[in-house]
Design goal:
Length: about 475
């Protein structure tokens, strides 16, 4: 099981800013915890010990000088290893990026630095964020801190595991089809996929550009709200960034759900969902109802086609984005007599099996004679899903569903059957296709004692309402555990 409950990011920052605790002591404590458990869990591709201690000393110097280092002063943050960090290896857990050190920081990394947060390491992921278990990494799998025989989910499994193991109070991941929310559910932490465009994607190594979104992992709803406020907001370096400030979230957490209309998505609360997960879902609905929400059943008919549409759109965009890894500009290069042979050998050696599978699927879907039948049709399904959500939000303020169909499964249980693995994302994919926010909130455990998360979904830029409901669910769980 995980180590004892660690202080929240909010409490750490308050102590460091107030001078009652040093940032160095905070970082040293987390590094000691990493040294103890990381060899068994493998949450990180790289632990930035020296860099983190130097950053902590700079925070302490600012406090001593009477300056305020920022709202996350001294708080360790783990970064998914597909976020660019200047001068620090960024691998996407792929051999193809061997030796690459970005010449710039991702916008979210820069915003974290300005907030006083301290990057403690780069976390493991499914290669290029393609997977649901963090078993597709070129550097080996990450294990679930609650049970080392089980997966942490994916693709941001390293970030989820780092927070669950108390290696860092906060982490960032990316969510293309559920890659923040699903591992958050399996590891028992809070995970948020914001509205597409609320958080800058500048410096995120692209998987599927119309779906990718960066978001927070945290142990509490309050911590997740603060982190999203810090990394959110317009960025002129990202052409898809929404031209408005970050949402105000911390200030709404105590407003409750009285009078809110919340719909349980019928298509995601039946066949294919484990009975213990459904039980937690209905318990969550009861909590919200007792808090004053009006609960009913919602319908998103096209959601059932989301998985099929996603696995055409995402691979198609990936096949285009990954064409840049050619052995010429950066990363791995396998020399050969001709350029074409060098390209082929470099990609053969550099990409793993799942990435190759998706590149081939996406290239086929975009090829002459098949574009309209596959990619074009998938985009039409995407529009149907967007329209179905719009109709649902005419009746409801929020929607509710499971985050993952099951609790964490055993390592190796699904690696030989890609389709079975893909089904892990059936509840999370619709929000990505619609570009809408959704978050996973820990809500009890399954019959096997492993964490269960419930998913709250909101309309575009509906994060404040979503976080209000999340705070109610979290408070109920705290009351139950007393």
């Amino acid at each position: 099981m995980t180590a004892g409950v660690a202080p929240t990011a909010v409490s750490i920052a308050a102590e460091v800013r107030g001078g009652t605790r040093s940032a160095r002591s905070v970082v040293e404590e987390h590094l000691a915890r990493i040294a103890e458990r990381e060899p068994a869990i493998h949450a990180f591709n790289l632990v930035l010990r020296d860099e983190a201690l130097a950053a902590a000393d700079a925070v302490d110097a600012a406090v001593a000088a009477g300056d305020d280092p920022g709202p996350l002063a001294g708080v360790p943050v783990a970064l998914k290893d597909n976020l660019c960090t200047r001068g620090i290896p960024t691998t996407c857990s792929s051999r193809i990026l061997e030796g690459w050190r970005p010449p710039y920081d991702a916008t979210v990394v820069e915003r974290l630095r300005r907030s006083g947060a301290i990057t403690i390491g780069k976390t493991n992921l499914d290669e290029f964020a393609m997977g649901s278990s963090t078993e597709n990494s070129a550097f080996g799998p990450t294990r679930n801190p609650h049970d080392l025989t089980k997966v942490p989910g994916g693709s941001s499994g390293g970030s989820a595991a780092a927070v669950a193991a108390n290696f860092a109070p906060l982490a960032l991941g990316s969510d293309t089809g559920g890659s923040i929310r699903q591992p958050a559910s399996l590891c028992g932490v809070v995970g948020v996929k914001p509205t597409y465009g609320v958080v800058s994607r500048y410096g995120l190594v692209a998987f599927a550009s119309s779906l990718d979104q960066i978001g927070p992992f945290a142990t509490t709803v309050h911590d997740a709200a603060l982190l999203l406020e810090i990394i959110g907001g317009h960025d002129p370096l990202d052409s898809t960034s929404i031209p408005s400030p970050a949402p105000s979230l911390v200030d709404v957490l105590d407003r409750g759900v009285d009078g809110l209309r919340i719909g349980i998505i019928g298509e995601l609360a039946g066949e294919g969902i484990a009975p213990d997960v459904l039980a937690r879902l209905h318990e969550a609905a009861n909590v919200l109802e007792k808090a004053g929400a009006i609960i009913d059943t919602a319908t998103i008919p096209a959601a059932m086609y989301g998985l099929s549409a996603y696995y055409l759109i995402a691979p198609a965009e990936a096949s285009s984005n990954l064409a840049r890894y050619d052995g010429v500009r950066y990363g791995l290069r396998v020399d050969a007599p001709t350029t074409a042979e060098m390209n082929e050998l470099s990609r053969t050696a550099g990409f793993g099996a799942e990435v190759k599978r998706r590149i081939m699927l996406g290239t086929y879907a975009l090829s002459a004679g098949y574009y309209d039948s596959y990619y074009g049709k998938a985009q039409k399904v995407r529009t149907l899903i967007i329209n179905d959500f719009a109709k649902a939000y005419e009746q409801f303020d929020l929607l509710l569903s499971p985050t993952s169909p099951t609790t964490a499964f055993a390592l190796g249980a699904k690696t030989s059957d890609p389709l079975t693995m893909y089904l892990n994302d059936i509840c999370t994919i619709p929000s990505n296709l619609a570009g809408q926010p959704a978050m996973s909130v820990p809500f009890g455990v399954g019959d096997d004692g492993m964490p269960v998360g419930v998913q709250l979904l909101a309309p575009l830029q509906g994060e404040p309402t979503m976080f209000r409901a999340a705070a109610v669910l979290e408070a109920a769980m705290k009351e139950t555990s007393r």
